[in-house]
Design goal:
Order of helices and strands: HHEHEEHEHE
Largest sheet: 5 strands, parallel
CATH topology: Ribosomal Protein L15, Chain: K, domain 2
Structural class: alpha/beta
Helix content: 40-55%
Number of strands: 5
Oligomer: single chain
CATH class: Alpha Beta
CATH architecture: Ribosomal Protein L15, Chain: K, domain 2
Radius of gyration: 14 Å
Shape: globular
Distance between the termini: 28 Å
Length: about 120
């Protein structure tokens, strides 16, 4: 059986845009994120805030090619681009002063993907 990938049109457009950006900029980070997003929803990464807090420092730029969940807390400011966020995770991140942006926006801001951590 052949894999068909995500059926959501928005997700498919995001994946193709990230792949295009990876080829244009010679930035393998965006191709890796795109490949992670092509996975089935149930096998995408899920990351708790406690993990983000443990593996990041103040002012880090982080990409999560999956869902960020609200278990735990974060005390420092980061810039986060994630495919999906739980409501509680979003509230806690905003309360901590973190910046939340879309995956497409972060790929535009940092086309080469320098100084970006993939967590999950």
């Amino acid at each position: 059986m052949k894999r068909t990938g995500p059926s959501n049109e928005i997700t498919r457009n995001l994946i193709s845009e990230l792949k295009k950006r990876a080829n244009e900029q010679k930035a393998p980070i965006w191709k890796r994120v795109a490949l992670d997003l092509e996975r089935a929803t149930r096998s995408r990464r899920e990351v708790n805030l406690s993990i983000l807090s443990r593996y990041t420092e103040d002012n880090d730029v982080v990409v999560v090619p999956g869902k960020v969940l609200g278990a735990g807390s974060i005390e420092h400011k980061i810039t986060l681009a994630a495919f999906n966020l739980s409501k509680s995770a979003e509230e806690k991140l905003l309360k901590a002063g973190c910046k939340i942006i879309s995956l497409l926006d972060i790929s535009k801001e940092s086309p080469k993907g320098k100084k970006i951590k993939i967590i999950g």
